[in-house]
Amino acid sequence: MSKEDEQCLISIREALEVVRGKWAILVLTLLSLGPQRFNQMRRYLDNVSIKSLTDVLRHFERHEVINRQVFPTSPVTVEYSLTDKGKAYIPVLREMRIWGETWGGTSEGVNDDETPLG
Fold it and tell me: I want to staple 77 with a disulfide (CB 3.0 to 4.6 A). Which of 4, 41, 71, 108 is the partner?
C-alpha cells in the first residue's frame, strides 16, 4: 500500500469518527437545511430517543461541527446549527443523496443510461 493510500484510509477513518453512529448523518442532514431546535429534530427523526439525539448533538459539539445557542426565553429555547466545519460536510451529504436516489431501495425506476450527476 502506498503512502497516499495509507493517508486516504487515515483521513476517511478520521471523518467517520466525527459522523459515527446511527443518527449522525440524519442529524447533519437536518441541520444542513437550517438551524433546528431539539424537539424539531425529534419530530423529523421519529424513532430517535432523547438520549440518542442528545448524545449525537454533544458529540458534534465536542468536534466543533455544530453550534448550540441558548435563547433566554421562558421556557429556554436551544437552537442547533452547523459551524463552518459542519457546513463543509454538505457536499458529502449531497453525494449520499445522489447515491441513495440512484442505488438505494429497489432497482425499479433506475435508468442504467443515466449518470449519477445528470
Answer: 71
Q: Which of 15, 12, 34 is nearest to 24 (CA)?
A: 15
Contact partners, residue 30, CB within 8 Å, separation at least 6: 36, 40, 41, 44, 45
Q: Whole-prediction pTM value?
A: 0.81
Fill in the DSSP letter of residue 114.
S
The dihedral over CA atoms of 15, 61, 88, 4, expressed in degrees to the nearest 10, equals -20
Q: Given strand 66-71, what is the order of strands in its sheet?
A: 36-37, 77-82, 66-71
The amino acid at residue 108 is E
pLDDT tens figures, 23-52? 999 999 999 999 999 999 999 998 899 999
CA triple 86-88-93, angle to 5 deg: 85
